[in-house]
Amino acid sequence: MRCSFCNASAIISLRYAKLRLCPEHLSSYLERKVLRTINRYGLIKRNDKVLIAVSGGKDSATLAHILYRLKDHLGIKLVGMHINLGIGEYSIKLERASRELFERLAIPYVILSLKDIADVTLPDIVRMARRAACSVCGLIKRYLMNITAYMLNANKLATGHVLEDIVQFIIKEFLTADFDRLSKLKPLLEGTPDGRLVTKIRPLYEVREKESLTYAIVNNLPFVYDTCPLIDERMMVFKIRRLIDNLELEHPGLSIYFLRKYNSSFIKYLENLGMNKTKFSTCNICGMPSTSHTCGFCRLILRIGKDPLDVLARVRSQIETMT
Ligand code: AMP
Ligand code: ZN
Ligand code: ZN
Q1: Contacts 24+ apart (CB under 8 A), 66-74
Q2: Do 199 and 155 form a contact (C-beta atoms < 8 A)?
Q3: Ligand 3 mean position to 314 CA, how many Å?
Q4: 257 and 99 in contact (C-beta within 8 Å)?
Q5: By the 8 A CB rule, do 272 and 259 touch?
Q6: 61 pLDDT band (50/70/90 cuts)?
Q7: List of long-range contacts for 33-36, beta carbons under 8 Å, 24+ apart
Q8: Dihedral of alpha carbons 41, 180, 146, 133, sign
Q9: Does residue 54 have its Cβ closer than 6 Å to ligand 1?
Q10: SS (H, E, C) 251-295
Q11: What's the pLDDT band for 268 if we cut at 50, 70, 90?
Q12: 98 lines ligand 1 (CB under 6 A)
């Protein structure tokens, strides 16, 4: 199988685009695709300081590498962060891969370890708070990613969500009729004017998981392919993911068509209904934007018998080691 652009042999076939690509042409294809997404949705402006959240997995490795390749063209500054959640050997491997990636790309970075900032691991918190692992993990990650960006004065926070992640969330929020969450699944989610909630961007919005995996492999990026040991495969999101994969096999290009429609018409409809306007007040403990009197993070920390302000002071001192 030959590459559609040169004589080298192709390593990936993209049915929806009717292309077969060699390693070199896959890389340039994805870099151009991400640049197009950035321009189409206005994700990045000149002089932005972008914090890349790296999990140690393939998607955020690909994201970091592509932004690294585009940074001079875009005229931006990059910083990185990784959160070690303390999930045994799994987290150790993820932290190692993240560090290696940042070092290789010479991106200044911060590592936050849950054990260092709160004296507990994610499995401890799940046990103590008696809540589902994925929801606790999501809450902690969202809070720490945002506060790191805020403390580092970054005006954009980039995550490695790929096309299938987004389509999967859209279908899930549809099925559970959660219109507030549904309206947030955009390539750019505006922060608050005071900068405390940092604008989130998803530059891999139109990149498929298979493309991101192949990119990470051909560019020899350090990443871990293991799945989180705390995940429950029976969760609805995994069934939805299989449904999307099967539909895409029979109808190549369906998910990208769906995603574009979602952005061009459905989101606008929700916006006209005022569905996208979250009213933020300020958390009475940490002072960060919150939809309730005390934010979810501070409530969680209180629930496990710790002091949120002490945790935040430790976050700050970890971040200051970098700056
Ligand atoms: P997930 O929620 O695990 O599907 O990850 C979605 C995105 O969140 C990833 O692509 C990363 O950009 C970011 N992310 C997830 N886990 C971490 C982590 N432990 N540290 C930093 N960023 C993360
Ligand atoms: Zn080629
Ligand atoms: Zn708070």
Answers
A1: 66/30, 66/31, 66/34, 66/203, 66/215, 67/34, 67/158, 67/203, 68/105, 68/107, 69/31, 70/31, 70/34, 70/35, 70/38, 73/35, 74/38, 74/44, 74/46, 74/48
A2: yes
A3: 15
A4: no
A5: no
A6: very high
A7: 33/206, 33/207, 34/66, 34/67, 34/70, 34/203, 34/204, 34/207, 35/70, 35/73, 36/206
A8: negative
A9: yes
A10: CCCHHHHHHHHHHHHHHHHHHHCCCCCCCCEECCCCCCEECCCCC
A11: confident
A12: no
Residue listed under structure tokens 């990149």: 207
Pocket of ligand 1 contains residue 55 by CB under 6 Å: yes
Q: Rounded to whole angstroms, how far apart are CA atoms 11 and 2? A: 9
Q: Which ligand is nearest to the CA of 144?
A: 1
Look at residue 277 in the predicted model and tell me its pLDDT. Answer: 74
Cβ atoms of 125 and 304 within 8 Å: the answer is yes
Tokens coding 209: 């998981």
Q: How many residues does the chain have?
A: 323
Residue with tokens 């931006």: 76
Residue nearest to atom 18 of ligand 1 (CA): 55
Instruction: Pick the range with the lowest mean pLDDT from 131-145, 207-221, 262-276.
Output: 262-276
Measure the CA–CA gap between 247 and 239, rounded to whole angstroms.
Answer: 12
Q: Ligand 3 centroid vs 244 CA: distance in angstroms?
A: 36
Q: Tell me the pairing of strands 12-14 and 19-21.
A: antiparallel
Distance CA 145, CA 26 (A): 30
Q: Per residue in 19-35, pLDDT tens?
A: 999 999 999 999 999 99
Distance 10 CA to ligand 1 centre (A): 30
Alpha carbons within 13 angstroms on the beta-carbon side of residue 306 total 22
CB of 25 within 8 A of CB of 129? no
